[in-house]
Design a protein that fits this description.
Aldehyde Ferredoxin Oxidoreductase,  A, domain 1, five-stranded mixed sheet, Aldehyde Ferredoxin Oxidoreductase Protein, subunit A, domain 2, Aldehyde Ferredoxin Oxidoreductase Protein, subunit A, domain 3, four-stranded antiparallel sheet, 14 strands, 631 residues, globular, binds iron/sulfur cluster, alpha+beta
């Protein structure tokens, strides 16, 4: 019944989290759950059908948290016979979970505690188990030290990076999950399924944008970002870098200087990832895989650091220590601005000057944060909300420069694109492009447009306002809900968003996703059925966070969003508070939420979620009576 109502992956994880984690618990306490979910297509052949999602109450944001990863851990879990794994409690001493088909063992991990992800992976595979082909999900020192944006690493180089789920593993004394699976997955209509996915692969290979994604991955976005004036510099104090600095981190530069091979996750035709080597200079002998634009931007332009070799080193260390590269880079950017404004002083930093563009310092700070080194390392490991709290009386001033929504931070300045602003604001896990960023500003406003049908989005939404990025028009909410739905579908089915309509008009869309699921499972899901399933997940994620105290005020973006962009092609643009709050109300209405952003009973019951409505109502009543008794 749950599978029919929630399908799988992130969507079903969210339901489990809501049911099993009561409000108000410490995300780093034993009551929190860590849920690992695969989807109905995970492990089957199909475009990028190798994803899995981790879900927990986030120690970074205090609300619903999840993060999704590629690689081949998800398929292996499925081959071992598991759709979802739910972990609770806390081990007395470090352990790892070893799943070998039906055999499950909790193994001593004392010898692995303190090791980097790479070291632990080698010991587990070569010494403990003696099989280099088992798949691993491992935390590094950052997860052990409860860094609030720590993440586990799947098979060395893939990261469910966001929301601090590595710290949740660390809080449970869980160093790793190791899996080996040898079973097969039953497909309801195997012949039709195979024929159909062949069609989908062909379409992807023939898409006009395919050569760009498969050559550059998301590093292809860096040049258009510079062109469009979305290159946030110095924690978004400036919006536009010199061309000389920007070119030093362009995708073309990355490919020419460092990349040695193209890499792909399980069954992925796009192969957006890269293996890269830094051969000379202070960071010589570094090998890693990645890097995404998100990583390059957060360790690069946000820190006014054009040293691509240092960015590569910071990325490699973040993978070894198990930390989200985006939150790590943006946390350093926040600290540098606080230091520039003398809100943080040398007393806080242990005598270190946090100067923009100091590439050696940036690399060193990654290590200090992972090990929570006394002083600056420990402070930054707390995340933005935690640091503001730790600053006491200085916290209020620091908060003015903390670019985040609900505790999660993002790379791109959204003042020139209202769709992006709305998406970040209402995302159920905090500011987040992967939750449903309307990708139109990339396609319509840069050199990419020649790869797309002209005015594709205007035609799709039958409105010329669709690509008027500054129009406070209800169409913004429609587009955001559409892209949220595409992303939620990918996360429920567990295929990579980069193979979906979200990234190219010819890629997998809601209709094709529904058909793949129907052929694989034997059901007849249909697009409307799929939409309803996804809507349930979205409402439950919101309900979880509302139960934790989140309200409409938490959807309002950070202070800098309402100040004009100071420079570059988008100079002068900013969010306007009243029209933006009105736009939020339009979105709430379309989602069936009240004016405070709370899902209504009517909406929840309409989706068959009476139990969620009851639970939400009783928690809200309790909260209300508790605050009344304090008066
Ligand atoms: S597009 Fe990139 S991230 Fe997505 S599955 Fe393929 S290789 Fe992995």
């Amino acid at each position: 019944e749950w599978k029919e109502k929630f399908l799988g992956g992130r969507n079903l994880n969210s339901k489990i989290l809501f049911d099993e984690v009561p409000p108000g618990i410490d995300p780093l306490g034993p009551e929190n759950r860590l849920i690992i979910g695969t989807g109905p297509l995970t492990g089957l052949l199909g475009p990028a059908t190798g994803r899995f999602t981790l879900t927990a109450k986030s120690p970074l944001t205090g609300i619903h948290g999840d993060s999704n990863s590629g690689g081949d851990f998800g398929p292996e879990m499925k081959y071992a016979g598991y759709d979802h794994i739910i972990l609770s409690g806390k081990a007395e001493k470090p352990v790892y979970l070893w799943i070998d088909d039906d055999k499950i063992e909790i193994c001593n991990a004392s010898h692995l505690w303190g090791k980097t992800v790479f070291e632990a992976d080698q010991i587990i595979k070569m010494e403990d188990i003696g099989d280099p082909d088992v798949k691993t999900l491992i935390i590094g020192p950052a997860g052990e030290n409860l860094v609030r944006f720590a993440c586990p690493i799947a098979n060395l180089y893939r990261a469910p990076g966001r929301c601090g789920l590595g710290a949740v593993m660390g809080s449970k004394n869980l160093k790793a999950i190791v899996v080996r699976g040898s079973k097969s997955i039953k497909v309801a209509k195997p012949k039709e399924y195979l024929e159909y996915i062949k069609e989908l692969f062909d379409k992807i290979y023939k898409a006009a944008i395919y050569p760009v994604w498969s050559r550059y991955g998301t590093t292809a976005l860096i040049a258009p970002k510079q062109q469009r004036g979305e290159m946030s510099v110095r924690n978004q104090q400036e919006a536009g870098w010199s061309d000389e600095k920007a070119k030093a981190i362009y995708g073309e530069t990355f490919l020419n200087r460092f990349v040695v091979k193209s890499k792909a996750c399980f069954s992925c035709p796009v192969h957006c990832a890269h293996g890269f080597v830094i051969k000379e200079g202070p960071y010589a002998n570094t090998y890693a895989e990645g890097m995404e634009w998100g990583t390059i931007g957060c360790f690069g332009n946000q820190l006014d650091n054009p040293r691509l070799d240092a960015i590569g080193k910071a990325h490699e260390l973040a993978s070894q220590y198990g930390m989200d590269t985006m939150s790590t880079g943006l946390m350093i950017a926040f600290a540098m601005e606080l230091f520039q404004r003398r809100i943080l002083t040398k007393e806080d930093t242990g005598g270190i000057e946090l100067n923009w563009g100091d590439h050696e310092l940036i690399v060193e700070l990654v290590r200090k944060i992972a090990y929570r080194e006394e002083g600056i390392g420990d402070l930054l490991a707390e995340g933005k909300l935690g640091l503001i709290q730790r600053l006491g009386e200085r916290g209020a001033e620091a908060a003015r420069y903390a670019n985040h929504i609900k505790g999660l931070d993002e790379l791109t300045d959204f003042r020139s694109d209202l769709g992006r602003a709305l998406n970040y604001s209402v995302s159920t896990r905090g500011a987040d492009h992967l939750r449903g960023l309307p990708t139109y500003s990339i396609w319509e406003d840069t050199d990419f447009k020649k790869l797309f049908e002209e005015k594709y989005w205007d035609k799709k939404f039958k409105s010329p306002k669709a690509t008027d990025f500054q129009a406070y028009d209800p169409i913004r909410a429609d587009i955001v809900i559409f892209t949220e739905t595409v992303c939620a579908a990918a996360d429920a089915i567990e295929i990579c968003k980069f193979n979906t309509e979200w990234m190219a008009q010819e890629f997998v869309n809601l209709t094709t996703m529904a058909k793949m699921v129907s052929l694989a499972t034997g059901g007849n899901i249909g697009v409307e059925g799929l939409r309803e399933i996804l809507e349930r997940g979205w409402q439950i994620e919101r309900a979880f966070s509302v139960r934790e105290g989140m309200r409409a005020k938490d959807d309002i973006p950070y202070p800098r969003s309402f100040e004009p962009i100071p420079s570059g092609p988008q100079k002068g643009k900013r969010l306007e508070r009243d029209p933006f709050e009105n736009l939020l109300q339009v979105y709430y209405e379309k989602r069936g939420w009240d004016s405070n952003g709370i899902p209504t009973r009517e909406r929840l019951e309409g989706l068959g979620l009476k139990e969620v409505a009851d639970e939400l109502e009783s928690t809200l009543r309790l909260t209300l009576s508790a605050s009344l008794s304090l008066l």
